Amino acid sequence: MNDFSLESSFFDIGQLDIGSDVKINGVKVGEVNKIYLDTETYMAVVKTSFTKKINIPSDSSFKISNNGFVGSSYLEISLGTSPIFYKNNVIFFNCFE
Description:
Elements: E1 4-10, E2 21-24, E3 27-37, E4 44-50, E5 61-66, E6 73-78, E7 90-92
Parallel strand pairs: 1-7, 2-6
Antiparallel strand pairs: 1-4, 2-3, 3-4, 5-6
C-alpha cells in the first residue's frame, strides 16, 4: 500500500505496531507501515499508507483504539468537516491519543 500516505505524531502509541489497521467508521482503509521517534520532539511518528486516495479533511482527529478489551490496536480517523484536505506525504501534529 503506497498510493497515498500520511504521517501523524503521538505522545504515546501504546501497542500500535507496523501492519496495524487504519480505519474510518470501522472500515479498514489502510495500514501502519512505519513507526519512529522524532528526535526533536520525542513524539512517536506513525506513517500510514492507504490503498487509494481518500480525502481526509484537515480538521480530522486521529486516535489509537483497540479491537475489544484485549484486541489489537488500530488507528481510527474521525473525519472533520474542513474543505481543506491533507495532501500526500504530509506530516501533522494535531493528533489525539
